[in-house]
Amino acid sequence: QITLKESGPTLVKPTQTLTLTCTFSGFSLSTTRVGVGWIRQPPGKALEWLALIYWNDDKRYSPSLKSRLTITKDTSKNQVVLAMTNMDPVDTATYYCAHSRDYFDYWGQGTLVTVSS
Amino acid sequence: SYVLTQPPSVSVAPGQTARITCGGNNIGSKSVHWYQQKPGQAPVLVVYDDSDRPSGIPERFSGSNSGNTATLTISRVEAGDEADYYCQVWDSSSDHLAVFGGGSQLTIL
């Protein structure tokens, strides 16, 4: 069965770079049309899509955050990494990774990241 | 960028039918996906490609999409359906980017 799990720091300081890792099992990121995306949700607010990487290393980013985001994959380790630079308190949110095959059909449990000095 | 508009809240009595809308410019030309999110939990896909249901999702959940509005319909609503619901599409006009609606909170009266 497909599972995903996010890992990374729970607390980062303003201006720091956040690095999150999504470790998955049950599928291969070398399979055609498969992708892994990142979505975040500030407390009490809506879902916001951040980035997605496809099996062929094609990458897509949210236009509003594109300059701050980098998504990469390590197919051999079954991992996808998201880096977000210049963190601000407004970036405090639960960050989810999800398996994508035209829709997000499997999600990780999410990890809460707080940005505070 | 493409915008999806959802009503912030929808209320319905148990056993009745809930309809949650998702508005977007010519959304009928796109595939719409719907997610259910209960407090403290990750979202769950309940409808994909406008009207298909993943395995394990009750037949009470259905979807439609035409013109400028997509609709998630939940028949015979139960207390356990109380949750936030989000629609999502891919904006192929902008380099194939994912877009989520603002979410609708379904309250069972």
Give the topology.
The complex is a heterodimer of chains A (117) and B (109).
Chain A: E1 3-7, E2 11-12, E3 18-25, E4 35-41, E5 48-54, E6 59-61, E7 69-74, E8 79-84, E9 93-100, E10 104-107, E11 111-115
Parallel strand pairs in A: 2-11
Antiparallel strand pairs in A: 1-3, 3-8, 4-5, 4-9, 5-6, 7-8, 9-10, 9-11
Chain B: E1 9-12, E2 18-23, E3 33-37, E4 44-47, E5 61-66, E6 69-74, E7 83-91, E8 97-100, E9 104-108
Parallel strand pairs in B: 1-9
Antiparallel strand pairs in B: 2-6, 3-4, 3-7, 5-6, 7-8, 7-9
Task: Give an overview of the whole structure.
The complex is a heterodimer of chains A (117) and B (109). By secondary structure, chain A is an all-beta fold. Chain A contains no helices and 11 strands. Chain A has strands at 3-7, 11-12, 18-25, 35-41, 48-54, 59-61, 69-74, 79-84, 93-100, 104-107, 111-115. In chain A, strands 2, 4, 5, 6, 9, 10 and 11 form a 7-stranded mixed sheet that branches. Chain A has a 4-stranded antiparallel sheet with strand order 1-3-8-7, with no helix packed on it. Chain A starts with a strand and ends with a strand. The model of chain A has no long low-confidence stretch (mean pLDDT 97). Chain B has 109 residues and is mostly beta strands. Helix content of chain B is 0%, strand content 45%. Chain B is built from no helices and 9 strands. In chain B, the strands form 2 sheets. In chain B, strands 1, 3, 4, 7, 8 and 9 form a 6-stranded mixed sheet that branches. The radius of gyration of chain B is 13 Å and the shape is globular. Chain B starts with 8 loop residues before the first strand and ends with a strand. The mean pLDDT of chain B is 96. The chains are: A mainly beta (117), B mainly beta (109).
